[in-house]
C-alpha cells in the first residue's frame, strides 16, 4: 500500500530492478538507484489483479483504463494531508468532555443527599 498516493489504482514494474512499486517515491525509498526510464511500462491493476503493458510514446485517452476491467488508473493523486484533530465524541452530541471552569460545583452534592430528599417527599 502506497503511503504517498492514497488512491493508487495500479502498481508499476520498474524497468531497472524488475520490482513492483506503487509510485516512483516508493521506488526511491526502497532502492539504492534511480528509477530507469523507458517507453514501455508494465502495470498491474489493483482491481482485477491482471498485468498489462502500455507504450507511452503514443498515449491517448483510452490508455487511461485497464484493458481487462476498464478501471481508470490515471487519476488526480490524493496525497496525505497533515491535520491536527482532537479525538473524542462530537461535542454537539455529547458535551461531557468539556468542563466549564466558570461554573462552581456544589461541594455537598451527592447521591445519598438526593436519596434522602426523594424519600422524605415520597413518604
Explained architecture:
- Pfam families: zf-CHY.
- Keywords: Metal-binding, Zinc, Zinc-finger.
- InterPro entries: Mito_Tim_assembly_helper, Znf_CHY, Znf_CHY_sf.
- Helices cover 15% and strands 14% of the residues.
- The chain is an alpha+beta fold and 123 residues long.
- It folds into two domains: 10-72, no CATH class; 89-122, no CATH class.
- A four-stranded antiparallel β-sheet has the order 2-1-3-4.
- A hairpin with a 5-residue loop joins strand 3 (40-45) and strand 4.
- The longest helix has 12 residues, at 111-122.
**What would you call the structural class?**
alpha+beta
- How many beta strands in the DSSP annotation? 4
Low-confidence spans: none
**Main beta sheet strand tally, sense and closure:** 4 strands, antiparallel
| Helicity, as a percent range | 10-25%
Rounded mean pLDDT score: 79
End-to-end distance: 68 Å
Which strand-content bin applies to the residues?
Answer: 5-15%
Domain CHY-type: 1-71
GO molecular function, one term: zinc ion binding
Keywords: Metal-binding, Zinc, Zinc-finger
Protein name: CHY-type domain-containing protein
Write a brief structural summary:
It comes from Ascodesmis nigricans. With 123 residues, the chain is α+β, with helices and mostly antiparallel strands. 15% of the residues lie in helices and 14% in strands.
What characteristics describe this protein?
elongated, 14% strand, 2 domains, 123 residues
Annotate the secondary structure layout:
Blueprint (H helix, E strand, L loop, with lengths): L9 E4 L6 E2 L2 H7 L9 E6 L5 E5 L55 H12 L1
Antiparallel strand pairs: 1-2, 1-3, 3-4
Amino acid at each position: 500500500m502506497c503511503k504517498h498516493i492514497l488512491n493508487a489504482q495500479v502498481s508499476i514494474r520498474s524497468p531497472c530492478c524488475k520490482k513492483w512499486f506503487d509510485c516512483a517515491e516508493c521506488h526511491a525509498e526502497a532502492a539504492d538507484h534511480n528509477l530507469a526510464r523507458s517507453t514501455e511500462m508494465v502495470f498491474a491493476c489493483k482491481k482485477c489483479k491482471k498485468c498489462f503493458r502500455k507504450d507511452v510514446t503514443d498515449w491517448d485517452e483510452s490508455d487511461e483504463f485497464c484493458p481487462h476491467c476498464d478501471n481508470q488508473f490515471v487519476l488526480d493523486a490524493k496525497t496525505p494531508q497533515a491535520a491536527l484533530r482532537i479525538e473524542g465524541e462530537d461535542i454537539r452530541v455529547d458535551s461531557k468532555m468539556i468542563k466549564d471552569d466558570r461554573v462552581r460545583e456544589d461541594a455537598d452534592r451527592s447521591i445519598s443527599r438526593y436519596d434522602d430528599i426523594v424519600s422524605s417527599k415520597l413518604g
